[in-house]
Structure formats: C-alpha cells, structure tokens
Write a structure and sequence with these properties.
The chain has about 350 residues and is mainly alpha-helical. Helix content is about 75%, strand content about 0%.
C-alpha cells in the first residue's frame, strides 16, 4: 500500500507547485507584454498630455498620436522602454498570477468551488502584491516612453534606464505608489473574478473543458470593464510618475492631482487614453492568461506522466527511492528554467549599462 506523505514531502511538493506557478506566470507575462507594447506607449502619451483651455495639444486622438510617433520618431520609438518592461513585467505577472492562484486555493471549498466575495478578494490580494515590482517598472517605462516627446518639444537629451534610476533614487522609483494601489487592486479584483466566471460559462457543459479560443475570449472579455473602470486611477498615476516639463503645474499627491485635473481639464480628462488602455489591457491579459493556462496544462501532463510511469528498471525499487528520482528530475527542469531566466536578466542589464 502507498505510504502516507511526510510533512517534509508535503512542503517540498507545495514549493515545487508554487515555483511552477511563478515560472509559468513569468513566461506568460513576457509574451503578453511584448504583444501590445506599442498600444501602451500611445496610451501613456495620451494620458500625460495636458489639455487646459487655450493650451496647444500635440495629439488630437490616439490614432493621431500613433501616426505622429511613427512620422517624427520612427517605428522603433513605439518600442522605447520595452526592455525594462520585459525584464520587469515577467516577475510582476509571475507574482500576480501566483498569488491569485495561491489565494484561490486557500479560499476554495473542498469541492473546488469558491464564493464570489472571496474570489474578488483573491484578485485584489494579487493586485496589491504586485505593486512592489510594478511601481519602479512603471516610473522607468513612462519616463522612457515620454522621452521622444521631450526631445521634440524641449530639445532634451535622451536618458538610459540606469541614468533614470540614478536620478530618481529609491524614493523616486516609488513615486505614485498610492495611485498604483488604487489602480491595480480593483483591476485585479474585477479581472480575475470576471475571467473565472466567463471561463465557466464558455466551458463544455459535459467535460468542463475550455479550449484555447474560449480561453482567449474569456481573457479579452474580462479585460474590458477592468481596464475601463480603473482608467481614472491610471491617469492620476501617469501624471504623478511623469517628468515635469517647463510650464506645467506640479502635483502634490493623489488628491491634489485628481482635483487639478477635474478643475483645469474637466471630468472627461480622467478617462484620457481609456480606449487605448482597453485596447492594450484586454488583448495583453487575454494572451497572458492563455499562455499561462496552456503552460499549466503542459506541466500537469508532465507531472501525470511522471506519476504514472513505471520505474526505469526491472530491478525491485522502493517507493521512497522512486519518489526521490521524481524530485531530482523536476529539480533539474526547474534549475534549467531558472538558469535561462537569469541569462535573460543579465543580458537585459548589459543592455541598460550600454545605454
């Protein structure tokens, strides 16, 4: 008869499961970010454009912004700031997806069902957990995305990632963190609960299986209200984290920024770039969640094959010895993934230093 799993084996199994979740989130996050990055750049430019009465505006709308960037800065300007985004968004998505999965497991009933309030709470917890990684990434990315405009308007000298980080310092990299919380907590609460509900509706009524098309559709549908409803917090965050230009009014904090935007530009300014935000977030999270789900399925199949396969020998072998063999195989796979991710991060750091 199979022996009961020891406490140490249980902890080891849980750690491997958590590591698998973070690894799949890491890869999926990078894929999703790359797919929609030009849309994110346009969204940032539109949100940071101030439209006080009588003031000249550089971009009439999102499409015009896209055309102006292409005409004046070139195609590759649409990907300015992509490297830190890829290096940073992968661990950010790994944390977000991993924490959401972990909290859902904690809150789920024995049969696997989870109450809606706890489902929303799990998503909110995931959104809160990512801010420590997200905020420095967002500040750096926004500064890089706005540089082309600064060069055109004021003749500013472009700065590299390391120069921006040295200039801001640790405190500066966490500027606007409060607004980041106000955006990411409700976004994740809305997104993950709606994604889960949509996935259940699209599942096969007999088997419960959801194919890749419906996974993509569920991710896209969930991203629309989540992105649209949190746009005001995103606008405030962008304004707080952008570099102040000559003649612009400084903001003292979230409340001051919110009130000045409404007073000087009207309520509609809080929804600047909302179309681009939806167009960015909906497909980005759809692609990210699709990649995450498919990677998780592959890992499950791999684990099933390990569990159901016979020992690689005809000689008698103790169950404990074969379990140790399984752990070594998984550990080798994890170590290989970790080594490749570290190589990517070192390559990214070298690119930053050269800038």
């Amino acid at each position: 008869p199979p022996r009961a799993r020891t406490w140490g084996a249980t902890v080891t199994h849980a750690l491997f499961a958590l590591l698998e979740t973070f690894a799949t989130g890491y890869i999926a996050g990078g894929i999703g970010a790359f797919a929609v990055y030009p849309i994110d750049l346009v969204k940032t430019r539109m949100q940071n454009q101030r439209s006080e009465k009588g003031a000249a505006v550089l971009y009439r709308n999102s499409l015009h912004c896209f055309r102006v960037v292409l005409a004046t800065e070139g195609f590759f300007a649409l990907y300015r700031g992509l490297l830190p985004q890829l290096v940073g968004v992968a661990p950010e998505k790994a944390v977000k997806l991993g924490v959401n999965s972990l909290l859902r497991d904690v809150f789920s009933k024995p049969g696997g069902d989870i109450d809606l309030p706890l489902e929303v709470l799990a998503g909110c917890g995931a959104g809160a957990s990512q801010v420590a990684i997200t905020n420095p990434l967002e500040v750096t990315k926004i500064r890089l995305q706005m540089q082309g405009e600064m060069v055109l308007k004021q003749g500013a000298t472009p700065k590299g990632v390391m120069a921006i980080c040295r200039e801001l310092g640790v405190a500066g990299l966490y500027r606007g963190a409060g607004a980041c919380f106000l955006r990411d907590i409700p976004f994740s609460g809305i997104y993950f609960s709606l994604y889960s509900a949509t996935k259940r509706r699209l599942a096969d009524p007999v088997t419960g299986y959801v194919d890749w098309r419906n996974l993509l559709l569920a991710g896209g549908i969930a991203g629309v209200p989540a992105a649209a409803l949190t746009t005001p917090a995103d606008v405030v965050k962008t304004r707080l984290q952008s570099e102040l230009r000559a003649g612009e009014v400084a903001y003292k904090g979230i409340a001051d920024c919110f009130s000045k935007i409404v007073r000087n530009e009207g309520w509609t300014a809080l929804f600047k770039g909302s179309g681009m935000r939806v167009a960015r977030s909906s497909p980005q999270f759809a692609v990210t969640l699709l990649a995450y789900e498919l990677l998780q399925r592959q890992l499950e199949r791999f684990n099933v094959r390990l569990t159901q396969s016979a020992p690689p020998t005809n000689a008698p072998i103790a169950p404990t010895d074969y379990d140790a063999f399984h752990r070594r195989v998984v550990a080798q796979q994890v170590a290989r993934i970790d080594e490749n991710l570290r190589l990517l991060q070192r390559a990214g750091a070298d690119q930053w230093d050269r800038k």
